[in-house]
């Protein structure tokens, strides 16, 4: 199997702080690979290493067959990168930004014109060539940024929270573009804090406190991460219900999800009826309680909770961002 990114025992320390702690994984050609974790977990540091912008303390990383330490320029020629913060020039037009980035990637002549035509069609920006970039909506700007990032037809692209701050329709269109690139054999390495977007990835890696705590398909993570029965509880008041639920015997974890609680019951511990009775006894109105299938967010809360327990951090993680 052809691997586009290979990471083995990668470590990055800043003084006494370990940002990346002996992580290993690989990505495959044409794969949409999701890289997820809470803020400060080591995602951005890992991406900077893989882009040849930061030297690891130890370990090995190869991108497109080149070692990121020995051949960083070769790596950068073969990747596209799109940051969370819009990084194009607002005072240039759409076509001027495309020509500028084409020149940076040494795409010239007829090849440049062909690639610009392709990028405009891919991003749906035909007819907007003369528009000032500053006048584009967030969704159009992100499409333009993606077009600039792939002008040189890199086999691997790194997208750092590419749809942050854009509307749902634009997010859906952006992910359609990602799937089109994947179908052409491009490896897409993406971070996102939207759990519905993570479902679009072929595989997901979860990094927490610099360590890789899970790797697999979305379905594998959902099935394997939550140990015990998962139930949903709609109750009022919700805050009080959470306090009571966390004190109940047999409840392994409790967290707020929207207008309900998700509780993980230990095997052989509490049942739905004992949970209902326990919460009601705490002066809370239980409006609905039922078993549910784990979501990706449930899986990530469970995985990070287990790691926090191992580290002695205590508490329960209320949400996971990429």
Supply the key terms.
disordered C terminus, globular, 28% strand, alpha/beta, six-stranded mixed sheet
Walk me through the structure.
There is one protein chain. With about 325 residues, this protein is α/β, with parallel strands linked by helices. It is built from 11 helices and 14 strands. Helix 8 packs across helix 11. The C terminus is likely disordered.
Q: Helical stretch count?
A: 11
Shape verdict: globular
Strand content: 25-35%
Uncertain segments are 313-322
Major sheet: 6 strands, mixed
Q: What is the H/E order? A: EEEHEEHEHHHEHEHEEHEHEEHEH
The overall strand count is 14
Distance between the termini: 28 Å
**What is the share of helical residues?**
25-40%
Briefly say what this structure is.
With 322 residues, the chain is an alpha/beta fold. The protein has helices at residues 43-50, 72-77, 94-104, 109-123, 138-149, 168-183, 195-198, 218-225, 238-247, 272-281, 296-311; strands at 3-14, 17-28, 32-36, 58-63, 66-67, 79-82, 156-160, 187-191, 203-208, 211-216, 229-236, 251-257, 260-265, 285-291. It is 36% helix and 28% strand.
Question: Which helices and strands, and how do they pair?
Answer:
Blueprint: E1 3-14, E2 17-28, E3 32-36, H1 43-50, E4 58-63, E5 66-67, H2 72-77, E6 79-82, H3 94-104, H4 109-123, H5 138-149, E7 156-160, H6 168-183, E8 187-191, H7 195-198, E9 203-208, E10 211-216, H8 218-225, E11 229-236, H9 238-247, E12 251-257, E13 260-265, H10 272-281, E14 285-291, H11 296-311
Parallel strand pairs: 3-8, 3-9, 6-7, 7-8
Antiparallel strand pairs: 1-2, 1-4, 4-5, 9-10, 11-13, 11-14, 12-13
Helix pairs in contact: 3-5, 4-5, 8-11
């Amino acid at each position: 199997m052809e691997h586009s990114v290979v990471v083995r025992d990668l470590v990055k320390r800043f003084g006494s702080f370990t940002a990346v702690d002996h992580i290993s994984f690989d990505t495959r050609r044409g794969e949409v690979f999701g890289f997820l974790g809470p803020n400060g977990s080591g995602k951005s540091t890992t991406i900077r290493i893989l882009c040849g912008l930061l030297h690891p303390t130890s370990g090995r990383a190869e991108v497109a067959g080149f070692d990121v330490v020995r051949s960083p320029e070769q790596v950068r020629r073969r990747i596209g990168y799109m940051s969370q913060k819009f990084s194009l020039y607002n005072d240039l037009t759409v076509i001027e930004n495309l020509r500028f980035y084409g020149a940076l990637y040494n795409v010239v002549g007829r090849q440049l014109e062909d690639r610009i035509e392709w990028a405009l069609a891919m991003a749906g920006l035909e007819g907007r060539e003369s528009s000032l970039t500053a006048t584009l909506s967030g969704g159009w700007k992100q499409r333009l940024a993606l077009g600039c990032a792939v002008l040189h037809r890199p086999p691997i692209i790194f997208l750092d929270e590419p749809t942050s701050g854009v509307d749902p329709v634009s997010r859906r269109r952006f992910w359609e573009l990602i799937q089109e690139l994947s179908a052409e054999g491009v490896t897409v390495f993406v971070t996102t804090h939207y759990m519905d977007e993570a479902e679009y990835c072929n595989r997901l890696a979860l990094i927490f406190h610099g360590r890789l705590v899970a790797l697999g398909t979305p379905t594998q993570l959902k099935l394997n991460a939550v140990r015990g029965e998962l139930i949903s509880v709609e109750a009022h008041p919700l805050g009080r219900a959470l306090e009571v639920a966390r004190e109940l015997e047999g409840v392994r974890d409790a967290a707020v999800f929207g207008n309900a609680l998700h509780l993980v019951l230990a095997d052989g511990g509490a049942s739905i009826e004992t949970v209902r009775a326990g919460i009601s006894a705490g002066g809370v109105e239980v409006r609905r309680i039922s078993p549910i299938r784990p979501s990706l967010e449930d899986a990530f809360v469970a995985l990070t909770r287990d790691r926090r327990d191992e580290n002695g951090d205590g508490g329960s993680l209320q949400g996971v961002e990429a």
